Amino acid sequence: LAGKIASIYHDNEIALVHSEDHLLMDKFSKKMTDLLAKQSRELNVKLIFEEKLIFLLLELATGTRIESDVQFLAFGAKPNIEVIKILDQSLIEQNATLVKTKPTLQLEHDNYTHIFALGDVTNIKESKLLIVLTFTLMSLGPETMMVPINKGAAHLPIGNMVVGSFMPKNFKGKLL
């Protein structure tokens, strides 16, 4: 996501703060995480590893402060709606763990048009920022994840191999 934002907003500083010492989870190869880090840096994304944001502040655990106009908080595979619940319980869909979001990705509330939600936490059915594809082909295994970098680039790890942009671009289509 940081790469996609950086490829559109060239003049803005984009920072990605991650609590681990590398991108993605440990189950992905070092080649994959190194390629993602390299391409992110080429898009001038500032990668900050082994840090955590202090709750609701743009201050890192080491005291580093980051000024920004927009913040995107992501906390793993399970949609984390706690921040939005604290902000306004009415923004959470009944019987769901999804945030009410306009098609523009803004929160669905007139008082919070300056706050955006992205990815699995939104109630937008077509949210395709990170795609998990399930295949039945044995050679690919049961689950394959494609990581988009920007409009024309993505990585697709298959076992210990990382497929460059050609195959993922065909999967992504023109929408991503």
Helices and strands, with pairings:
Elements: H1 2-8, E1 14-18, H2 30-42, E2 45-49, H3 82-87, E3 131-134, E4 143-150, E5 153-158, E6 161-163, H4 166-172
Parallel strand pairs: 1-2
Antiparallel strand pairs: 3-4, 4-5, 5-6
What are the salient characteristics of this protein?
globular; FAD/NAD(P)-binding domain; 176 residues; 4-stranded antiparallel β-sheet; alpha+beta; 4 helices; two-stranded parallel sheet; 6 strands; single chain; electron-transferring-flavoprotein dehydrogenase activity
Structure overview:
Keywords: FAD, Flavoprotein, Oxidoreductase. Helix content is 19%, strand content 18%. The protein has 176 residues and is of the alpha+beta class. It has a single domain, classed as FAD/NAD(P)-binding domain (3-Layer(bba) Sandwich). The strands form 2 sheets. A 4-stranded antiparallel beta sheet has the order 3-4-5-6, sandwiched between helices. It has a two-stranded parallel sheet with strand order 1-2. The longest helix has 13 residues, at 30-42. The relative contact order is 0.14. Mean pLDDT is 74; it is low at 127-142.
- SS field, number of helical segments: 4
For the termini, the CA-CA separation is 11 Å
Instruction: Give the overall shape, derived from the CA principal axes.
Output: globular
CATH hierarchy: architecture? 3-Layer(bba) Sandwich
Tally of DSSP β-strands: 6
Range of strand content: 15-25%
Low-confidence regions: 127-142
Rg to the nearest angstrom?
17 Å
Encode the helix/strand succession as letters.
Answer: HEHEHEEEEH
The CATH topology annotation reads as: FAD/NAD(P)-binding domain
**Total separate domains:** 1
Largest sheet: number of strands, sense, barrel closure: 4 strands, antiparallel
User: What is the topology, as strand order, of the major beta sheet?
Assistant: 3-4-5-6
Name of the level-1 CATH class: Alpha Beta
Residues in helices, as a percent range:
10-25%
Mean pLDDT across all residues, rounded?
Answer: 74
Which structural class do the helices and strands define?
Answer: alpha+beta
